[in-house]
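Dock PMT; give full complex structure.
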Amino acid sequence: MILKDKTIILGVTASIAEYRALELISALKKEGCNIHIALTKEAAQFISPTMFKALTNNDVYCDVLEELDLGSTNITHIALADIADVFVVMPATANIIAKMASGVADDVVSLLSVSTHCPKIIAPAMNSYMYSNSIVQSNIEKLKNAGYLFAGPIEGDLACNAKGIGHIADTQDILDIIKSVFFEKTLTNYKIIVSAGPTQEAIDPVRYITNHSSGKMGFAIAKIAHMMGADVTLVSGPVHIKEAPGVKRVDVKSALDMLTSLKNEIEISNKKTVVIMASAVGDFAPLKYVDKKIKKIDNNNNNINLLLKKNPDLTIEIGNFAKSINKDVKIVGFAAETDDLIENATKKIKSKSLEFIVANDVSRKDIGFNSSENEVSIIYKNGSVEKLHKMEKDDVAYQILKRVEGIKWI
Ligand code: PMT
């Protein structure tokens, strides 16, 4: 919980997307943050300060001359600036972006933009014509060059029944950018290649063999690795989740497709390369692909034989491939077990030449496949075992990546 006990100053300006600030506040509260709200007068006409006060249990800063009891000094914008760990403006109108870009400080939000001395994040929301306006774009460029981080906007529905770019970013993406501020960029010299999700082994044009992997574990590793400064490629089987902004995604279907993409990413990497195999790679594929839909046999024998062949072990294949091109690639594996977790996982470390293996019990419903949390044991080459308590997959990802940092390179 990287945001626990952090103080977030949230500046809110008047926009149809203002209700999304309430969503962000509840997400930040779940992360254990302390949230202070600065609400422009116009924003206070959309949603009352009382609502924000009730959600944050803190007084809401609405008027430049208002003095809130914040302990350190009685000049509110200085006192808030002194306690802020991050300053977020969400939603951010074209007007506030212009003020922030030119250092105007005549309302509570623009005043805090000038007085805060912490990382600053802006989540724009406006009509797409306004967003593409060259002056608005130059204000955004100026703020980016000054180190302000931007979350969105994205394509989506806009006010006045329009569609286009200008829709406020997803709350989870804004939250992830806030979190990214607090991650130490310790993986900047690394290329992290993550495999995620299931593979699909086609039987005929209509049917395939797959498994229950949702991709969440691998996507979390890719997201956190990016937040820690790594250059990240996510090689994913078919899943229904979105990769974090900044992560390169390569979509594959079969185990062989995944192998080809992993090899390619290894070949083009010119950094310290670590492959993290979080995907549930299909161990088998149909011996023969039938290029027409297999008809239901209507004789009285209702059984159909489906001959399967073994898929290559991708982890072993990429290890051999890296050696064949003289690349020192480190590989971290996962072990999906239903029994004898540690014993079965330990066998895989040697057979797959892994740096360490992340073992999870996939017979449990509350962890492993498709869950938001996981409970893993990390087993090292020397046989030592580190059992982690159950936690969000984002936090498991962070723990795995901290151990990637510890891998020894010759
Ligand atoms: O995607 P989620 O819904 O979040 O679920 C997460 C997960 C349960 C899929 C993940 O935590 C996990 O356990 N991934 C590994 C699943 C798996 O295939 O484990 P395994 O014990 O069968 O394989 C061991 C290792 O070899 C894995 O790193 C796997 O990627 C790799 N492998 C497996 C088969 C194969 N033919 N080639 C491989 O490289």
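Observed: The chain is about 35% helix and 25% strand.
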